[in-house]
Amino acid sequence: MIEFTVPNMTCGHCVSRVTRALKELDPSARVEIDLGMQRVRIQSGETKESLAATLAEAGYPPAQAAQEA
């Protein structure tokens, strides 16, 4: 899984937008979001760079790629 910290993700609407954007990029992606920790974990065939770009385009640029697990 690829993990990002998304500091401006603060509410349920943000979670919905992030999930929708990632699913538009890769409909089969598994997306796990921990709103309290502002963490997004994605299992996808897409690259870390394309996932980060998709988050940024949706208005939620990741602060950092925490790790790949």
Summarize the structure.
With 69 residues, this protein is α+β, with helices and mostly antiparallel strands.
3D architecture notes:
There is one protein chain. Helix content is about 35%, strand content about 30%. It is globular. By secondary structure, it is of the alpha+beta class. Strand 2 and strand 3 form a beta hairpin. The protein is built from two helices and four strands. The longest helix has 14 residues. The C terminus is likely disordered. A four-stranded antiparallel β-sheet has the order 2-3-1-4, with helices on one face.
| Percentage of residues in helical conformation | 25-40%
- Write the H/E string, N to C: EHEEHE
The radius of gyration computed from the alpha-carbon positions, rounded to a whole number of angstroms, is 10 Å
Tell me, rounded to a whole number, the average pLDDT: 92
Q: Structural class of the helix and strand makeup? A: alpha+beta
Fraction of residues in β-strands: 25-35%
Q: Runs with pLDDT <50, length 5+?
A: 65-69
Number of H- or I-type helical stretches: 2
Name the shape in a single word.
Answer: globular
- DSSP strand tally: 4
Task: Please report the distance between the alpha carbons of the first and last residues.
Answer: 5 Å
Strand order of the largest sheet: 2-3-1-4
Largest sheet: 4 strands, antiparallel
